[in-house]
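Ticket #4471: complex job returned nothing on first submit. Input attached below:
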Amino acid sequence: MTSVAGTSASPAISIRNLFVDYGPRRILTDVNLDIPASQITVIMGQSGAGKTTLLRCMLGLKKPSSGSVNILGTDIVRASRRELNAVRKQMGVAFQGGALFSSMSVAENIQLALREHTSLDEKTIQIMTRIKLDMVNMLAAENLMPAELSGGMTKRAALARAIIMDPKLLFFDEPSAGLDPSTAAELDQLMITLKTTLRMTIIVVTHELDSIFKIADHIAVMANGRVIEFGTPQQIIASANPEIQGMLNRKPRENIVDTDAHLRRLVGG
Amino acid sequence: MRRTLEKTGATVLQWLEHTGRMFNLLLLVSFELLQPPYRLYPVVRQMYFIGARSLTLIVVSGLTIGMVLGLQFYNILQRFGSVDLLGAGVSLSVIRELGPVMTALMVVGRAGSSITAELGIMRITEQIDAMDCMAISPSKYLIGPKLLAGLISVPLLTMVFDFVALFGGYFVGVVMFGVAEGSYVNGMIDTVEWSDVRIGLEKSLIFGLLVTLICCAQGFYMHLTKAGSQGAEGVSSVTTDAVVLSSIAVLYSDFLIEALF
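Support reply: We reran it on our side without changes. The output follows.
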């Protein structure tokens, strides 16, 4: 078992000895991580490092081969459907592509969780929807359909939907992907606001360096299916790990390849 | 030879796995539908999509098939001087066989393929995952209303098909070829028994369930198949598979029901 990355003071999420396989391919190897409460933790790494798989395990969308994922006191790997749903009602998720329900308007997307999980009257639902839309600066778009939204508007609508139930935990999968720098900066600012005003625990999976160092209180660096470092942004910058320094300096990965063997493989020799 | 056997074995195993998953889905949805909250509006909405919007197709195809049957039976019966049996022939063929089967096949083509595509697209754009993460059961919310709507709509559409097809046969026989109206209608009444009507409706119930279940499962579980990694092409592939599988299931179960009952 590798050592646990993260703080030990009442973490919001606690991952132990997590292994994930897709068939014969091992994707995550012995991941141990504590994610602190009421802070923004960024999970970063190059493409293929296992960030999205780790996120899906935390959301209960992927059952690991072994290990535990403890969220707000419940091990969701071993939890029943009812227990898992109880945890999920305290979570909000903004997926990379927004994942807005295409047959519903923006307002209907946001209201769905309220209609399914609460017995609030219609007027209250409408008011709460408008409050959340106003927080993400999308009030004018409440009656638009998802297909009518730009990339930035989609992300903001997805965020409004994710926070409608005032969750304790908020997950972002590549929030800046496909956005122009100013819209990405707006989204970054929203995340900081949510952390400071609503004391949410926010987990962001991304590889956008500019965003990372702007929003992160803690950073977990992943490579080859493992968490190789965890710390504050300053600690990560000061890391002696060459792989981390390569990521920070935007260096392409070195392919240490035997050229002859590589060519032989290509021509089927 | 060995490779062929391995490939065949792999295909059979995949098919068994998919069939098992489908029936698990049916059990899961049946159980979930018994749990509150109970919502009528999504079922009504799906009935409108599967049922009401298929009406034009059902009426046109029913009328055409009834008229073709009338023509075919008239040509045959005329050779034996038995055109009085036209009503009996058309009605038995339609009520017991053609009505349920043709209705189910029309619904597969129009609504079934659309259901598969909708669920497939929702799967690859993570909408189903998003629903799951909101602690809303995707199977109850998305599939439950469709299954119920299919169970209700297909038998109703079958009745419409039967009625229109019988009229089509009547139009050809009585209006075009001058068969006595009384012999056409009395032929229907004297020949068609309650067991024929019952079997026709039972078939339509089974076909409604099969078609909706297969089409829903193909889209809902596409991420567990090779199609799940193929994006838009994958959606196209599972939609085609859904139509083919549903059609085969309808025809094969029709044979089984006729053979057993």
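The interface with chain A takes residues 37, 121-122, 125-127, 129-136, 141 of chain B (CB under 8 Å). Closing as resolved unless it happens again.
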